[in-house]
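Below is our example:

___
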Amino acid sequence: MFALVLGCAGPRLYYLRSELPILEGRFDLAVAPGPWPHQDIPTVVADTDTIPDDLVLPTLRALMTLPGAVDACDPNTGGPRPDAAEYCVALYKTPQDWRVSWPIRNLVKERSSCQPPFGGVDDESFGRSPFIIGFAHNHPCATRMSSEDLTQFPAVKMADGLWTMVSYAASPDGQLARDSRNRLIPAWAWLATGHKDEPRLYKWNPAGEVFQWNEATARWEFQANCHPQEASGMRSPRMLLPRCSPELKW
């Protein structure tokens, strides 16, 4: 059970990863509470085969309003300031509507990446049954997606007890989500980056097709096909930019 903590600093804005329950004793299988009761994020009712932008876009913009989520770079080094932070959320589907989980911020290495809640969501109305569509996060220094970012999709537990990521919306127990016409609902990932006065919103699918939101035309525009680069030596996957064709403009 999650408790909403109110203190002298005001209402809760996010959860630290250390506050979340985990599955099977694994830190990567954290379970996020939901939905996020943000005034600008609606719960959306729509019978579509993909998650509605009416939920996605307000979520990405709300992530950029969290403390240290944007324009949090040291002008001398170009690196993150001590207050810089990444937050991540799960976007999910219940039997009634589409929702988003509370944001998660890591307690350990707070300036590092925020690992998604691969253990799923504990929704206040539907428990742990919702289907996870995908994960969204921010980059506080206006950087593009990393190679690791391109690989983060819903995780399910297989019959042999192993966990694996899948290309479709799924619940952690291995059930795949379908729309009213019995079509599988594809998984997506999203990134909010750029600057407060010039945000850049991206999404991509497991095939590596990257799209950017165009505010003027109100649609997602294809940018490139991108694939992760393998890390070698001491380099982390997060330090590597993906290979994109055509080259991703930045």
About this structure: The chain has one helix and 14 strands.
